[in-house]
Amino acid sequence: MNKLVIDAGKLIKYKRKVKGYSTQELAKLLDVSPGLINNIENAKTDTFNIELLYKISSALDIPVTDILSYNLDTILTSIFDNHEMPSSLKLNLKPLLKALIQLSNNENLSSTKIDIFLEKLVDDINFYSKISSS
Predict the structure, then answer these.
(1) In this structure, are residues 89 and 95 in contact, taking their beta carbons and an 8 Å threshold?
(2) Fewest CB within 10 A of the end CB: N or C in the chain?
(3) d(Cα 107, Cα 26) in Å, to the nearest integer?
(4) Is the pTM above the cut of 0.70?
């Protein structure tokens, strides 16, 4: 298995133990089999649905982005590598995109706040595009 799956499993296992849940208790809470929890924690599977990922995130108080954080920089780098833009623009956009990804995982955030953030993101992108093309 790749590093993302191994790191995610270790984090889930660590947080489960911190919360004081046995594998069986967490499985019951998530309405899955203890074997699936064991396989996720020990990186024997990376095949489970997004709903389960969010349930794990919620039950163990782990932001989804923390579970997937290993690959976040890699994903952003690959996005930027496939688009021609000045490196200064890439450097300024990377934290904004990370913030957007983290924001998207906050289920308690209102659509109004998300709209405001997206407007700011678009304004920042336009600003950085203008200064980098000068």
Answers:
(1) no
(2) C
(3) 21
(4) no
Instruction: Output the six-digit token pair for 16.
Output: 């489960």
Residue 35: what residue type?
G
Distance CA 87, CA 37 (A): 42
Query: Residue 51 sits in a domain of what CATH number?
Result: 1.10.260.40
Q: How far apart are CA 25 and CA 38, in angstroms?
A: 12
Q: Which domain holds residue 54?
A: 3-62
How far is residue 42 CA from its own chain's centroid?
Answer: 20
Q: What is the pLDDT of residues 57-90, one digit of tens each?
A: 999 988 887 787 655 565 566 556 656 767 777 7
Token readout for 32 is 């899955």
Quick one: 129 and 92 in the same domain?
yes
Tell me the C-alpha distance between 94 and 82, whole Å.
14
